[in-house]
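FORM 7B - TANDEM STRUCTURE REPORT

SECTION 1: FIRST PROTEIN
SEQUENCE AND C-ALPHA CELLS:
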Amino acid sequence: VLYTKATLDGFASIALASTYGVGVMFSALPILLYQGAMTLAAGSLRGVVTPELLTQITATGGMLIFGIGVNLLDLTRVRVGNFLPALVFAALLSFTPI
C-alpha cells in the first residue's frame, strides 16, 4: 500500500512541479519528516491497538464520513466537528469491561 501511495505521490508531484516549480521539491523533506514521525508513532502503538478498538474507531469514523457525505449532498447540515470527541470515547469504551 505504501509503495502504491508513493507512486501516486510521485506522479502528483511531477504535475504540481510543472505549475509551482522548485518549491515542490523543497516540500519533500518536511513531508518525509511528518509522515515518518506518524509511521513511527503508529508502530509504537502496535501492542495497544486491539481488534475491538480498531473496530469501534472504524465504525465511528464511518459515521463521521457519512455525516460529511450528507453535508456534501446538502440534505441537511451535520456539524461533523462536534462529533470528533466520539473517536476518543470509542477508544475509551473499548478498554472498559462490560
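SECTION 2: SECOND PROTEIN
SEQUENCE AND C-ALPHA CELLS:
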Amino acid sequence: MPVKREFKTSLLQVGRVRKESLKKIKVPEDENQYMGNLLKEFNSGWKWKFPEAVFQFGICMQEFQRMYLLRCLYRRADSEKKFLGWKVPKFFKDFSKSEDLESPFWDISSVESNALEKKMLQSGLFSEDEGQNANTPLREIKRRAEFQIQIDELFN
C-alpha cells in the first residue's frame, strides 16, 4: 500500500508577494526625477528570454486627480524593443473618490488616454511611428465595439 505524504505549503509562503496598502502609496514629489529613474530602468537592457515582455509602471496625472498603473507591451526584434501597445489595467488611486477602481479600461476617457499617451511618448517609451501602429485603450475600445456589433448581427 502506498505511503500517503503530506504536502507542506508553508515553505511556499516565503516568497509570496505582499499587497501594499493603498494608503502607503506616495505620489513622487519630483516627477522629473521619477521619470528619469523610470527611463534608466527601461533603457538598462532587458535580459528576457521570451519574444514579448511587459514594462509596468505607475504614473500620476494631477490634472485628472488619478494615479495609474500602466503596462506597455514590447516584442524583441533584432535585439531591440519594438513597442506593441499599452493599457491601464488598474488605477492605483482616484484622488476624487474614496474607493479604488478595479476596471479602469472602460472608465478612461479619450482625454485621459491621449494625455497618458503623450506623456509616454515624450518620455521616450516609444516613438511616434510605433505609437501610430500600436494597440491603445481607445483602439481597443473601438475594436471591441466593432466585434460586439458583429456578434449582435449574428444573433439577430
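SECTION 3: OBSERVATIONS ON SECOND PROTEIN
The chain has four helices and three strands.
The helical segments are 31-42, 110-123, 128-133, 137-154.

SECTION 4: SIGNATURE
Preparer initials: ____
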